[in-house]
User: What shape does this take?
Amino acid sequence: MRSASDILNAHRGDPTRLVQILRDAQHACGNWLPARVLSEIARGLGLPRARVEGVAGFYAFLNLKPVGRFRVLVSDNVTDRFAGSAETCGALCQRLGVKRGHVRSDGRVSVDFTSCTGLCDQGPALLVNGLAIPQVTGERLDQVVRLIEADTPVDEWPADLRRVQDGVRLQGPVLGATLEPGAALHRVLHASPDDVLATLKDSKLRGRGGAGFPVATKWETCRTAPGDSVVVCNADEGEPGTFKDRALLMRRADLVVEGMTIAARFTGATQGFIYLRGEYEFLLPHLNEVLSKRRAAKLLGTGICGDRGFDFDVDVHLGAGAYVCGEETALLESLEGKRGVPRHRPPFPVTHGYLGRPTTVNNVETYADAAVIFGLGLEAWKALGTEQSSGSKLLSIAGDVERPGIFEVPWGTTVREVLKLAGAGSVKAVQVGGPSGELISPKELDRRIAFEDLPCAGAIAVFNESRDLLEVVVNYAHFFAHESCGFCTPCRVGTHVATRSLDKLRQGRGSSAELAELGTLTRLLRDTSHCGLGNTAPNAWRHYLDKFPDDLARRLQAGFVPAFDVDAALVAARTARGETP
Amino acid sequence: MSSFTLDGADVAFTEGQTIIEAARVAGRFIPSLCAHPEFPAHGSCRVCTVLVNGRPMSSCTTKASEGQVVESNTAALNRDRQALVQMLFVEGNHFCPGCEKSGACTLQSLGKELGVTSAGFAHESPTRPVDASHPDILLDFNRCILCELCVRASADVDHKDVFALSGRGLHKHLIVNAESGRLADTGMSLEDKAMTVCPVGVILKKRQGFSTPIGARRDDVQTPRQRLEAGRKP
Assistant: This one.
């Protein structure tokens, strides 16, 4: 077993690697971080112990209390729910003889839910000690139980059980790119910064992570800011229902790194990071292999492409279960080994990012797009899309469709066309862009996926006529409450208060009082939250309340019903007295 | 000198000042909680949110700039502030009548200032044991509003790093720098700056109960608004 000092040495005693160190230490200590280990790490890094504990306490995958030696986490996205995740969770608990959220008495196993793991097209999905196991029903569920009872370490589980499909259903210029490694980079190598900038501007490429910021502006600001700049790839794909970066990293990782290298060439960066969400740990060996191959081919490292002044390398950092780290400044905090709390802006990362250096942070898809633009040329790119949204967009489609998976479509495609591609039948509603996006009704299916109409970072979740939309809304609201970093009052308390109101509505105990409270919360979160998580959290419920009045009306009581349910509270006492509850 | 307008009045500022700093110097009150004149802005309570040229921004983290139109005392903003203060009350356990800090508590004063007369939301009633391990100091976490002033004072002024935050979301909480988790095993002492900065009643000196009677305490005599406005230049 590795000691704390071995782990610290492996990370060069570097405090910015704290999250990586804690992950490794937890692995070495049987899946949790005992108090004395935190003390050792703090001493080794020269950090206050409480700060180390505070970092460990922030991330959902780091445990300050013992969990099972097999920690089984069931993905709790609503599409996993509809694919039977609750049944899978129940069956696992029953077969393994453990209560959800508890550790079995022999310490072998614990089972609990976790936020969306990005395997929505292959649900219900599990993470077992961090590794993804898709489609856990029937025989595959039996297999999981047998392997745990046989104490087989998860990295020795059959490859077939751990195999994740890339899920690609429709290729476009990015997923179908046949560029040789280095082809796009070579085109940039001898171009002047002005020419590169002109191409980027002309391409109208906008960030693919959701905000849609013009890439040319971001890269140019970073290039001209004083200091050693850094290139960061945001692979913290946490928005529930989004799994398109998973496919890109499985199939086109080389293109992504090529895009990062082009950004480095342009901005003058020598250091790069891929911040990979903890749920995608299964991709780590593959990514490291891609990086090694590129180093061997002189496409990464020192003297790239034989140019002695061109040095750039990329390190993969793993997250540890925190949606908020998809927000770029929270991501940078995490990358520096801290709690993933979003920073105040300004200053923006382009001038003051990683360790205060100018930093280009872009989504996985954005870098792949940049490589395609330089590799295949502007014309092919500009032939696709709309006025304000150029090129293609990767969509990850899940829920009630015949063909869930990844579809690369031109921007401007209507929701109706997207649904047809994926084989949707009856449609009650579609969530575009995940819980922080927009829930649309069947009347809106001719709206276009584009920055000028329905912006979408990738997630499309389809719900058919049989689904309870309030179950969707409640699931999303709980997601935000679970993922709030807790920094600011409105988000920390407000997301939680919202879950109470919505739970009450779902139980059929809600009235206009709950609607008024949700209205207050919508305004408060939107206007006063510290970051985008809080600002967009009300999207989880407000579109439902606005657009599905008939559905809502059926759930409402005419008058106020107290939150306290006297009969429920008396069940235990009445049972003890032998009364029928 | 450059200036912006706050609710119609001109407020002068110097380069680098935030809106709330400039307002404070000018004797103009913007309700706030986690902002402290001796520490850099924190921006977590959001009570000081104002409209800057029509956009909601926290006035403690937004730099003042020439010609800004800042609105603070509006019905809508005060309603939002009320809700934020109510949220801070319901997430912890605040029993003002029995609290040593009553009358000198920024949360309580702000509640009065904003006309908060009810909890507004359902009480969380969390279980938060106190830490009475230290011979001279009591920590009552029930009242913590997570402003991090003690964290900052202990790190930046005392250079002791006694406090930090752990957990996240509603489970975010204050911790102390000891493997035992007890204040007695940290370097905290009565002389620390961290003893003096808590805006509520978390960090208390033991054996000092009710030395100033209720009714004669800091905010009983003069509310934070009155104190600030008393210093306003005519």
